[in-house]
Amino acid sequence: MEYLLAALSGYLIGSIPFGLLLTRAAGLGDVRNIGSGSIGATNVLRTGRKGLAAATVLLDAGKGALAVLIAMHWLPGYEGVAALGAILGHCFPVWLKFNGGKGFATAAGVCLALAWQVVLVCAAVWAAALAISRISSVSSMASVLVAPIAAWALGLEQLVPVLVVVAAIVIVQHRANLVRLAKGTEPRVGSKE
Question: Of 67, 105, 131, 154, which shows the fewest CB atoms inside 10 Å?
Fold first, then answer.
């Protein structure tokens, strides 16, 4: 029962589509009709509204952290289940016919609540990858891939299985980006494509 409650509560919190809600509230219509079609911050940035994109990052990360913190308080020991539920909720929200975002900001929030030390390592990798590539998807994928390694190196072995699954979900959600990267057509940060 605790497993189910943690998964369901995480999923429901994660499924709140902040990128879509914010762009609609700002009178910009449905963010899924532009760019990658995602509800995440990178696609919100393609509207030209940096403030909305920043708010999307914060809210998507916040919902990931909230799901974990609620589990820590009410369902201790099931934080990892709630974390995965939140990411799955963001990527596959029932309200949007299971077509959501790519999960990176929510994964960052989950990691922040589970182990802030891992986030510091991932943030450094993210910043370096973005500075070198100027491609958001490259920095996102690089940082989630390093998360389980960072957890292991920091002595947080119990988080490694959860972070491996988190990385797998985020990478799978970036499969279209991987195809564009292979073709050399992946848009750089600031592009409206």
Answer: 131
